């Protein structure tokens, strides 16, 4: 029986090593107790790999059910950035219990990482980044590089004896250099792109994109190396930011996860649902103003969703473009005049094109040229103002120092519904004699 158990464990180890992604996909769908049982049979390094790739919510739940000794070993073997992320997801009391269980040096390092603002360079950097002294020769540097993990050898971070950043070197440059040449003589760019620990994530993403970086040093006020941010980390950060922006735009908390508890989800979503309810009543109130007109011409009620739907889509298109521009630093608030004019003109031109198609469709359906004209004009007005609103909302929120993604979709839906309903029903009331 023991031989069979040893064989099963060996097969499990081999599967994890050769198919890590398939392993994680399988673990995401099993009870936490089974993940805990598996981790108890694995080495700390393999356990760190598994926890690092699990979703944050599942990883933190699993972490809290492991024995303290195993937690200490796994966190010591884990990348500090990921370890800090897991611990920061715990409630303050549980976090302190876990930190107190760690070695003093590691606990201090993780506390330092968690002390930086959310989505800053300090949270993204790898603090244990190896560096190479500039006084070494190419031959000495290559010998030292053999002790580095492969991913840390592609780009060399060169510092002086006090840890001050001097420059970056590609491994190829060192390999092809004279063996006796000192690294300081090989550095071509002595002022590489660098950031401080408080630099926001959006700016870091922009730097990687603009300069095609593979590695970005993080330095303190005296230019001493604190850590490095790698391209893979930025890609993950970009994906995380896009996902959280999508949640925020529809009124979902940025820190809610798919496996969050129902009560937690309810508490974080309910306030925005109530706000959405109030805005829906506002749109309904606009419709109520024209109750008599709708009662007289029932076709208006049939066509209301058409106008609101088109203006809503127009606004959403403008919102998506502006949100992308702000996120990638393609535009700033100072560009508001050009941006608003461009989106309003785009909405107007699209409105004219859609109005022609809509007007012809309504004319064939209702046999009323007046109704076709009213919905056509209303379409142009509502789509022009929807494009303007979709651009203005994130710019206004940014100017006020607020997150431009925070529930922008809810605000936009309110504006487009009110504008669409009011323009269509208002024109129908003014030109009721020709309907």
SSE layout:
Layout: H1 2-18, H2 20-27, H3 32-39, H4 44-53, H5 56-65, H6 68-77, H7 80-88, H8 92-100, H9 104-115, H10 121-124, E1 132-133, H11 138-145, E2 155-159, E3 165-170, H12 171-176, H13 183-186, E4 195-196, H14 201-211, E5 215-219, E6 225-230, H15 231-249, H16 262-289, H17 291-296, H18 299-327, H19 336-366, H20 369-399, H21 408-430
Parallel strand pairs: 1-2, 4-5
Antiparallel strand pairs: 2-3, 5-6
Helix pairs in contact: 1-2, 3-5, 4-6, 7-9, 14-15, 16-21, 18-19, 18-20, 18-21, 19-20, 20-21
What attributes characterize this protein structure?
MgtE N-terminal fold, CBS-domain, 3-stranded mixed β-sheet, 67% helix
Task: Give the domain tally.
Answer: 3
What is the name of the CATH class of the largest domain? Mainly Alpha
CATH topology of the largest domain: Tetracycline Repressor, domain 2
Oligomer: single chain
What's this entry about, in short?
The protein is mostly helical and 435 residues long. It is built from 21 helices and six strands. Helix 7 packs across helix 9 and helix 14 packs across helix 15.
Describe what this molecule looks like in 3D.
The chain is mainly alpha-helical and 435 residues long. The chain folds into 3 domains: 2-115, Alpha Horseshoe (MgtE N-terminal fold); 132-249, Roll (CBS-domain), CATH 3.10.580; 262-434, Tetracycline Repressor, domain 2, CATH 1.10.357.20. Helix content is 67%, strand content 6%. The chain is built from 21 helices and 6 strands. The strands form 2 sheets. It has a 3-stranded mixed beta sheet. A hairpin with a 5-residue loop joins strand 2 (155-159) and strand 3. The N and C termini lie far apart (87 Å).
């Amino acid at each position: 029986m023991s031989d069979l158990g040893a064989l099963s464990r060996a097969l499990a180890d081999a599967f994890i090593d050769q198919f890590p992604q398939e392993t994680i996909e399988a673990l995401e769908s099993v009870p936490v107790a089974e993940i805990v049982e598996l981790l108890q049979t694995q080495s700390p390094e393999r356990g760190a790999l598994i926890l690092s790739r699990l979703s944050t919510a599942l990883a933190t739940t699993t972490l809290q059910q492991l024995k303290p000794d195993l937690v200490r070993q796994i966190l010591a073997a884990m990348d500090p950035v990921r370890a800090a992320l897991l611990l920061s997801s715990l409630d303050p009391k549980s976090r302190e219990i876990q930190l107190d269980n760690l070695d003093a040096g590691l606990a201090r390092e993780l506390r330092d990482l968690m002390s930086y603002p959310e989505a800053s360079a300090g949270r993204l950097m790898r603090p244990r980044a190896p560096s190479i002294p500039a006084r070494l020769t190419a031959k000495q540097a290559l010998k030292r590089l053999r002790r580095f993990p492969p991913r840390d050898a592609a780009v060399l971070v060169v510092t002086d004896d006090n840890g001050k950043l001097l420059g970056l070197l590609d491994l190829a440059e060192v390999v092809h250099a004279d063996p006796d040449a000192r690294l300081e003589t090989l550095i071509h760019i002595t002022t590489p792109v660098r950031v401080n620990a408080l630099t926001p994530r959006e700016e870091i993403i922009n730097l990687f994109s603009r300069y095609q970086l593979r590695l970005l040093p993080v330095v303190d006020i005296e230019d001493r190396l604190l850590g490095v941010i790698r391209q893979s980390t930025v890609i993950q950060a970009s994906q995380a930011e896009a996902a959280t922006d999508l949640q925020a735009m529809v009124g979902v908390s940025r820190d809610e996860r798919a496996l969050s508890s129902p009560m937690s989800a309810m508490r974080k979503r309910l306030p925005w649902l109530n706000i959405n309810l109030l805005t829906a009543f506002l749109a309904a109130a606009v419709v109520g103003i024209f109750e008599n007109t709708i009662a007289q011409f029932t076709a208006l009620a049939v066509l209301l969703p058409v106008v609101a739907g088109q203006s809503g889509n127009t606004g959403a298109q403008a919102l998506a473009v502006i949100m992308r521009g702000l996120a990638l630093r393609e535009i700033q608030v100072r560009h508001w005049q050009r941006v608003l004019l461009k989106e309003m003109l785009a909405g107007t031109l699209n409105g004219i094109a859609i109005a022609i198609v809509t007007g012809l469709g309504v004319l064939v359906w209702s046999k009323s040229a007046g109704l076709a004209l009213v919905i056509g004009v209303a379409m142009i007005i509502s789509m022009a103002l929807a494009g303007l609103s979709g651009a203005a909302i994130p710019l206004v929120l940014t100017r006020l120092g607020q997150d431009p993604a925070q529930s922008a979709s809810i605000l936009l839906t309110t504006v487009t519904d009110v504008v669409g309903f009011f323009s269509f029903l208002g024109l129908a009331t003014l030109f009721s004699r020709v309907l």
